[in-house]
Design goal:
heterodimer, A: 417 residues, alpha+beta, six-stranded antiparallel β-sheet, 17 strands, 38% helix, globular, B: 493 residues, 26 helices, 3% strand
């Protein structure tokens, strides 16, 4: 094993005849190993880095061997080329005319998509929800694919959720109707965006799937605070892993949602971890009541202080009021983070509730109540109070994390690998 | 005035939407969807929490400290092992240090515990107050309370239950009130089928006492041979029963063991005298008249009677040690038959001295039978068992595969000497790269028994078998021993 200014490296005896050449570029960190593992980074790279973290003294300062130096040189090369390309792109004059043309084109495609979706949705209600109960999910998938083609990924996502709601058991028809009602509202907003107040029209555009360029968002106003990372959950969405991270600022009491995406087996960014807090600046995506945000700058993470303080929802009523305000600003708001301080668990005829000091109770989502995570929450509570971060969809709460006297526990659903 | 919340109106609208506007009448699809959007938004925005005064009981405080994060991580690993084979060992280590399981892991461990047939006590101990408390909340995790748990109407259930239900009921009742259990069985005896009667007698036979003797004696007159057999087995477990006295008396008539008195040689002499004719009274006590093919009649009768007699019949006259007795009768024509009967009796009665003597004797033979030996040495304390196991494994007539199976057959925690001996034996496989199912199965079992201080030597020994790297299952065995070593180190710290 050895180290230089920029990298560490080592040879590891694996099951093959030749030892593996493992190297880690510390500046990122980046990994490279000659083992055949398809996992990335591989266990050798991780092991090396862990070893370095634990006993840096075991790595002698040395000249980089050829197999390390060459790789580093390649990386430097690539990085330079990339920087060059992006400089070149920046230098290119903006073709305003072509841009406007593309925007108009998309507008038209979305309008066609919206019209098609409306016809289809109305046909669905004409035939009755019962009629689609026995149908396979493929017709929904086809419609979702059409919406993707129409450059309205937001609509595609909403359509894709429908089969799951139809199959969601008792009360499915209410949930499904509520969902398609919202979808309908979005379609109408898309049709008549010209008549809407600008801000609401912009919410509708976001819900339909128009995105803001990351650079534009990052250029926005920074919100500095001590941010608590209270819950994290990964969901698979059409071959894409989407992770929602919920943050609450200690001083501003602002709620923020950070989304991360990764395709297939690629790992998600690991810099923000549930159960920690950091000093940093967030930038919010433009909205009437901004919620989605990007982390622009941050200090190192600290273990979450178990006192949430005034930023949390002191009562369930406070939490629901915050939700209602956000919903009024954006009728397409899918989930809202309730940061409930000091609630207890209660069971009434096999239904579980989160209950505050005033005996106000919110029903816990059925999928959570039927799993092991519910029992972990019950167990750490010991029948006493805990603080819970739960996603609220307007009807039931899905706990993602809890803070008890000894620390934080992650309650997000576990996905089978 | 009734207040209709947006929620209830949404539910009513959903009923229409299920049918569809074609059949639902008045509304157009457009109007229905718009209304759904409005009602849905109103319902979400105006959600009223329920009033829930109910509360869970508070969990009593547990004075014991929680295990450290490293031990917790190890517990997560052993919980993720497919068969949870190391959980009990983890729990024993934690319990020995007076530690308990973290609350966030308690449900998963409790869930595992509740799914085990034997529900090991030590796991429940390390779960502490939290485990008992969670058990109160989740019926599936409740610890069966010793002494309690009798159904309100045992007699009624006994009359109407299915056979498995009645057997479960009988087991419970026997544990709490043995006499009442026996009364239950007798209350329906005449109308129950032979198979049911046999199974009831078997239940009574585990943990029966002299109080059960009168009933079991009557069962010896049952019309079914298998029921009589079960009763005889049960009576054989009651020390001082009349049945036992009869079998002992019969055995005494078939053997002669006595001290020899001589000037130079003081020893024990023994002879075997198989019965010449079948005594009709034997039928009642479960002795079968017709032998299985391949066995002589007289040997068959001899075997059954000696196997049913108490082992004291061999030593009462001379007070000789078991090994002396075996030596004394070794020259007899019927020695093999007698030895088989003694092995059966010693294993069934768990008599350590006789088990050890029989194993020794068998190891002196040409073809020791491993299955018979392991039934015997299960009854020996580890320090006596281990040398015999090693000796058996190195017996010149035991094949390589059998040798490893022999070692793997005892699942107690091996001593260092036993572990070292086993590793030495395993080195025979060096370079053979076997992927035989038995070999890998044995490795798996050995990895649970071997002294974890030997983890690295175990890894070396197994790796030496596979010059091109061990297969998945062998690697898993190596990892398991290493995990055990880490566990022991962690809790020793």
């Amino acid at each position: 094993m050895g180290r230089s200014e920029r990298a560490i490296w080592g040879l590891c005896q694996g099951s093959g005849a030749k030892p593996y050449q493992t190297r880690v570029d510390l500046s990122e960190p980046a990994f490279k190993c000659s083992c055949p593992s398809r996992k990335f980074p591989c266990k050798h790279g991780l092991g090396l880095l862990l070893l370095f973290a634990k006993t840096p003294g075991a790595f002698a300062q040395a000249e980089e061997p050829a197999w390390v130096a060459e790789w580093l040189a390649e990386r430097t090369d690539r990085a330079e080329k990339k920087a060059e390309r992006s400089r070149a792109a920046e230098d290119k004059p903006v073709d305003a005319e072509a841009q406007a043309k593309r925007a108009a084109q998309r507008q038209e495609r979305v309008r066609d998509g919206v019209a098609g979706c409306r016809v289809w949705l109305e046909d669905l209600v004409r035939r009755g929800l019962a009629a689609c109960q026995g149908e396979s999910g493929s017709s929904w998938d086809r419609m979702a694919a059409r919406m993707v083609d129409a450059q309205a990924p937001g609509l595609a996502g909403l359509v894709r959720q429908v089969p799951g709601l139809i199959a969601s058991g008792e009360g499915w028809e209410v949930r499904t109707l509520d969902h398609v009602g919202r979808l309908h509202l979005l379609l109408k907003a898309g049709e008549r965006s010209g008549e809407l107040p600008t801000e609401l029209a912009s919410e509708a555009r976001t819900a339909l799937g128009w995105t803001h360029a990351k650079e534009d968002v990052l250029a926005g106003q920074e919100v500095a605070d001590r941010w608590m990372v209270l819950g994290q959950v990964v969901e698979a969405e059409d071959r894409l892993n989407v992770r929602r991270t919920w943050l609450v600022g200690r001083a501003t009491a602002r709620r923020a949602l950070v989304l991360d995406f990764a395709t297939g087996l690629a790992p998600l960014d690991t810099s923000v971890v549930a159960g920690t807090e950091f000093d940093g600046a967030l930038v919010f995506y433009p909205a009437r009541l901004p919620l989605r945000a990007l982390v622009k700058s941050r200090s190192a993470s600290h273990v979450l202080n178990v006192t949430l303080g005034g930023a949390a929802d002191g009562t369930i009523e406070t939490g629901l009021r915050r939700y209602a305000e956000s919903l009024a600003a954006n009728p397409w708001l899918a989930r809202w983070p309730l940061a409930l301080a000091e609630v207890r668990l209660a069971r009434v005829r096999d239904r579980w509730f989160l209950v505050d000091g005033r005996d106000a109770g919110l029903p816990v989502h059925a999928s959570f109540a039927s799993g092991m995570q519910l029992w972990r929450l019950v167990s750490v509570s010991g029948g006493k109070h805990v603080s819970v971060l739960a996603e609220w969809d307007g009807f039931s709460a899905q706990p993602l994390g809890a803070i008890h006297e000894n620390g934080y526990i992650d309650l997000a659903p576990r996905w089978a690998a | 005035m009734s207040v209709e919340s947006p929620g209830t109106r949404l539910v009513a609208l959903a009923a229409l939407a299920v049918l569809g506007t074609d059949r639902g009448g008045a509304s157009t699809p457009e109007a229905l969807l718009t209304r759904a959007a409005v009602l849905g938004a109103q319902a979400r925005a105006g959600f009223k929490p329920a009033r829930v005064p109910a509360r869970l009981p508070a969990c009593p405080a547990d004075a014991r400290p929680v295990v450290g994060p490293t031990s917790e991580a190890m517990l997560m690993r052993v919980l993720n092992e497919p068969d949870g084979g190391l959980i009990v060992e983890w729990a024993e280590l934690a319990h020995a240090k007076g530690l308990r399981v973290p609350d966030s892991v308690a449900p998963a461990l409790l869930d595992w515990w509740a799914r085990q047939h034997d529900r090991p006590e030590v796991v429940f101990w390390v779960l502490g107050q939290r485990g008992a408390w969670l058990g109160e909340l989740n019926e599936a995790w409740r610890k069966p309370v010793a002494g309690g748990g009798l159904p309100a109407d045992a007699e009624g259930s006994w009359q109407t239950g299915t056979t498995p239900e009645r057997i479960a009921l009988l087991k419970t009742v026997r544990r709490v009130e043995p006499a009442r259990g026996a009364a239950l069985v007798q209350s329906t005896w005449d109308s129950d089928g032979a198979e049911e009667r046999r199974r009831f007698v078997e239940v009574i036979g585990t943990g029966c006492t002299l109080a059960d003797e009168p009933f079991l004696e009557r069962v010896l007159d049952d019309r079914s041979r298998l029921v009589r057999r079960a009763a005889a087995d049960a009576l054989g477990r009651i020390p001082g029963s009349r049945y036992q006295g009869r079998m002992n008396e019969r055995a005494r008539g078939l053997i002669r063991v006595e001290r020899t008195r001589g000037l130079l040689k003081r020893g024990v002499r023994g002879t075997l005298h198989p019965p010449q004719t079948f005594d009709e009274s034997w039928h009642r006590d479960g002795v079968e008249e017709r032998p299985a093919s391949g066995t002589g009649q007289k040997a068959w009768w001899l075997r059954q009677i000696l196997a049913a007699a108490e082992l004291t019949v061999w030593t009462e006259a001379t007070e000789a040690a078991p090994a002396e007795v075996l030596d004394a009768i070794a020259g007899d024509d019927y020695f093999e038959t007698a030895l088989g009967a003694i092995a059966e009796a010693a294993a069934r009665r768990g008599d350590a001295a006789w088990c050890a003597a029989v194993v020794r004797r068998r190891l002196g033979n040409d073809h020791p039978r491993i299955d018979e030996l392991s039934a015997l040495w299960q009854n020996l304390p580890p320090d006596q068992r281990e040398p015999l196991m090693l000796e058996a494994a190195t017996h010149r007539r035991v094949s390589g595969d059998d040798m490893l199976t022999t070692l793997a057959s005892s699942d107690h925690r091996w001593s260092r000497a036993m572990s070292a001996g086993a590793l030495k034996l395993m080195s025979v496989w060096s370079g053979r790269a076997t992927v035989a199912w038995q070999f890998l199965e044995s490795l798996d079992r050995i990895s649970r028994s071997i002294d974890p201080a030997m983890a690295e030597r175990f890894a070396e020994t197994v790796s030496a078998v596979y010059p091109d790297g061990p297969p998945e299952r062998a690697r898993a065995s190596i990892d398991r021993v290493r995990l055990r070593a880490d566990m022991h180190k962690e809790f020793a710290a």
